């Protein structure tokens, strides 16, 4: 997939950007973010520094309210930081226009949420296809429909749901809904997958199944993953775990024992 976010003319290949592109999928420098409620300022991220290598599976653990979801939103270009820099594949993304952020999100990022966010009127198959429906123009979608269907069916098979293609979310269990959401996140062949408490709404047995499946698929599809969770057992599936403490990321070597 072409990951360039800008045309060649727009993109400036500085030595730093070439270095970053080669070794890091994501690099975060001194990010800060506050929310403003009436006259109150709520500082949430207080200088986050963080990097993720290509193909790495990283867990971010931390107490509720420590800023994990806020950080994931910024990494997913759903919001912008107040200060600091975010680089994706060597390109600075926190300063992109809204249109180019949308394009990046559609082409290169996949999301998994705690409450699945499936569309209730659509079947499992249609939910998996929905990012392609949104991203592709009507004529292109019609032309490629067969190929898209086959890809969606194959993904639903990979998550063990080949017998649930025509079920709507209300006819699926929690684990099955999250499996459908995983297939949907993978349909656009993203480079980076962002998962916010993917097992937070599941019982222990389903959570274990879903997390093992996620790990297998990410290895199979050579994905880079950042997963937020408050559960250390779930986090331990990752290659590396970092901790979020009161708005900053603490790497294991710097954590107090
Ligand atoms: P976590 O995911 O670690 O539980 P969040 O990133 O969701 O933490 O929230 C961090 C802090 O920011 C919390 O204190 C929360 O109340 C506050 N917060 C989150 N979103 C908003 C918002 N839209 N407006 C105001 N405060 C918010
Ligand atoms: Mg959260």
Question: What layout of secondary structure does this protein have?
Answer:
Blueprint: H1 15-23, E1 24-37, E2 40-53, E3 57-61, H2 68-75, E4 83-88, E5 91-92, H3 98-108, E6 109-112, H4 124-135, H5 138-158, H6 174-186, E7 192-196, H7 204-220, E8 224-229, H8 232-235, E9 240-245, E10 248-250
Parallel strand pairs: 3-8, 3-9, 6-7, 7-8
Antiparallel strand pairs: 1-2, 1-4, 4-5, 9-10
Helix pairs in contact: 4-5, 4-6, 5-6, 6-7
Number of strands: 10
Number of domains: 1
Provide the CATH top-level class. Alpha Beta
Strands of the widest sheet, in order across it, are: 6-7-8-3-9-10
- The ordered H/E elements are HEEEHEEHEHHHEHEHEE
User: How much helicity do the residues have?
Assistant: 25-40%
What features would you describe in this structure?
This protein is an alpha/beta fold. The chain has a single domain (15-252), classed as P-loop containing nucleotide triphosphate hydrolases (Rossmann fold, 3-Layer(aba) Sandwich). It contains eight helices and ten strands. The chain has helices at residues 15-23, 68-75, 98-108, 124-135, 138-158, 174-186, 204-220, 232-235; strands at residues 24-37, 40-53, 57-61, 83-88, 91-92, 109-112, 192-196, 224-229, 240-245, 248-250. The chain has a six-stranded mixed sheet, with helices on both faces. Strands 2-1-4-5 form a four-stranded antiparallel sheet. α4 (124-135) packs parallel to α6 (174-186). The longest helix is centred in the middle third of the chain and has 21 residues, at 138-158. Magnesium ion binds at residues 68-69.
């Amino acid at each position: 997939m072409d990951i360039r976010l800008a045309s060649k003319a727009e993109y400036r290949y500085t030595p730093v950007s070439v270095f970053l592109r080669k070794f890091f999928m994501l690099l975060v420098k001194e990010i800060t973010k506050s929310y403003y409620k009436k006259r109150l300022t709520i500082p949430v991220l207080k200088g986050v520094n963080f990097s993720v290598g290509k193909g790495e599976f990283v867990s971010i653990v931390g107490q509720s309210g420590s800023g994990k979801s806020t950080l994931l939103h910024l990494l997913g270009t759903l919001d912008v930081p107040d200060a600091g820099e975010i680089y994706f594949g060597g390109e600075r993304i926190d300063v992109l226009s809204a249109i180019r952020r949308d394009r990046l999100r559609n082409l290169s990022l996949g999301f998994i949420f705690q409450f699945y966010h499936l569309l209730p009127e659509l079947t499992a198959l249609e939910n998996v296809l929905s990012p392609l429906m949104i991203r592709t123009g009507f004529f292109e979608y019609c032309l490629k429909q067969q190929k898209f269907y086959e890809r969606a069916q194959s993904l639903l098979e990979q998550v063990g749901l080949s017998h649930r293609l025509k079920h709507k979310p209300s006819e699926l269990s929690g684990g099955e809904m999250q499996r459908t959401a995983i297939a949907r996140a993978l349909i656009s062949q993203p480079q980076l997958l962002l998962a916010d408490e993917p097992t937070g709404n599941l019982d222990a047995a389903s959570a274990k199944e879903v997390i093992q499946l996620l790990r297998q698929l990410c290895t199979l599809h050579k994905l880079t993953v950042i997963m937020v969770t408050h559960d250390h057992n779930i986090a331990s599936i990752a290659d590396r775990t970092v901790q979020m403490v009161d708005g900053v990321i603490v790497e294991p070597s710097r954590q107090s024992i």
